[in-house]
Automatic annotation (TrEMBL):
Stretches assigned to the ABC transporter domain: 4-252
GO MF terms held by the record: ATP binding
Record-given protein name: ABC transporter ATP-binding protein
Position of the signal peptide: none
Alphabetical list of CDD domains matching this protein: ABC_Mj1267_LivG_branched
The organism of origin for this protein: Actinomadura vinacea
Pfam family for this entry, one: BCA_ABC_TP_C
SMART domains, sorted: AAA (SM00382)
InterPro entries to which the protein is assigned, alphabetical: AAA+_ATPase (IPR003593), ABC_AA/LPS_Transport (IPR051120), ABC_transporter-like_ATP-bd (IPR003439), BCA_ABC_TP_C (IPR032823), P-loop_NTPase (IPR027417)
Keyword Thylakoid (UniProt): no
Amino acid sequence: MNLLEVRDLTLRFGGVRALDGVSFGVPEGSLVALVGPNGAGKSSVFNCVSGLYRPDGGVVEFGGENVLALPSHALASRGIGRTFQNLALFPRMTVLENVLVGGHTSYRSSVLSCAVRWPGERRREREARARALDLLDEHKLAHLADTPAGGLPFGTLKRVEIARAVMSGSRMLLLDEPAAGLTHGEVDELGGTIQALRDAHGLTVVLVEHHMGLVMSISDKVIVLNLGKVIAAGLPGEVSNDPAVVAAYLGAAA
């Protein structure tokens, strides 16, 4: 059963058609990659699914619900978490505090309850902190819990951002170029981390990624975009040998 269903998604910027009838499904519990040359429309798909863009046409269903009319914060509460190409962390906050921010959609307090500090609120704070520390331990970041995020290595900050996305209680994670800027060793470690998180938390993962070694080694399904259209979809080995994919990446033979 597909947790995410995208049908006939269309998006225009002036006279430019960024997405032209994009359709695909993401089975629950799977790890699916969206790939394609620069300008293919990958990030535009992410931005539509996460509520940052309003498409000109089409349907995006998550868990059987058409979510296009919902604001981005409502999508987060439905269970859609996301990371970004450019890190969106708070540099003056500690690593632990940054991860705790991810739980704001599932941890809600009224002004009165925060002021009074009722026992139930204190219990939920302890539970949130314990969950955040567990996630840091999973990402081998526990020793940095009280360290300000600013100044930490880029690869470390990528792991902090993924931990924060998981902290939101998401059913599906959208990872936007998680391997960008990482060393080869960090990319290998990232692949194992993503698979382990998917398995440990029962997540569905969709990633936009240019690092094809990572894509081919961890993905259950690969969807290839070019010029705003889906040109191939299937198992990694099938897609990598598809003539349309080869032409899109290398250029058609003269």
